[in-house]
Amino acid sequence: MRSLFVLAIACLLSACAQQSQIQLYPGSPLSDEQVLTVVVPNELEVQSINGQQIPSANWSFGNADKRLELQPGVYRINAFYKNGFDIDGGISHEVVRGRTATFIVDGQPGELWQLDFDRPENLQQAKAFEAAFSAWTVNTRTGERHAAEAGQRNNSVINNLIGGTADPVAEQTSVAPLGAAPASARAIQPAPAQGVVRPMPGAMANETLPHNDATLSTLQQMWQLLGDDSRAAFLKWAQQ
After folding, report:
1. Where is the signal peptide (predicted)?
2. 119-to-67, 83, 136, 155, 209 alpha-carbon distances in Å
3. Each residue's pLDDT tens digit, 110-136
4. Global pTM?
């Protein structure tokens, strides 16, 4: 009986180890020498990759880092620090969400890149990430290092909508390098005529937002962020 239990645990750990590697390219799995691997620390949450929300990029088990397997090429990975801290000996708990950062990766086949930052030692140091978040990418083979670009504060409903993992995009499981068309891409649509405003691809969600005070408040906040030209363009589109 004990041997069966040990075998079951070993199988479970093996399965978790396999699932920690997240394939973000279409088709059958490729060898490590053929793909670009990007290690994302467990404390970082990925908002988007090359402008696309990829919910599976945040799959992890326990405190394991996430290993994103990608087609070789250039990627802009938007991510932010997110971690929980016990307060008063575990009586309460606080989750810190830091400012976003854009990590730039330009990887070749077989390379391993790491998203990294200075780990905070306590809650106070972690909360400093809400105002400034110093992070970088590093090529573990060559030591090449690039500082991440500063992003937005991550403390509003707007940022959560922009960078969150909403249900309408849950089916997105792969992403192409910058400058490369996705394998499933359709024919390129002609550019709209000047002065014509059209909704962005994917703007028509499968489900509508609920009609409540939270939705209204969110729309009002977004409207306040728009400039005069953007407001005029939006109103013109809404009247079509």
Report:
1. 1-17
2. 19, 11, 12, 20, 38
3. 999 999 999 999 999 999 999 999 999
4. 0.64
CA distances from residue 64 to 24, 41, 75, 190 in whole angstroms, order as listed: 18, 8, 22, 44
Tell me if 30 sits within 8 A of 24, measured CB to CB. no
Residue 236 CA to its chain's centroid (Å): 32
CB atoms near residue 96 (< 10 Å): 21
How many whole angstroms separate alpha carbon 175 and alpha carbon 75? 9
Q: Which residues contact 208 (CB under 8 A, 6 or more apart)?
A: none
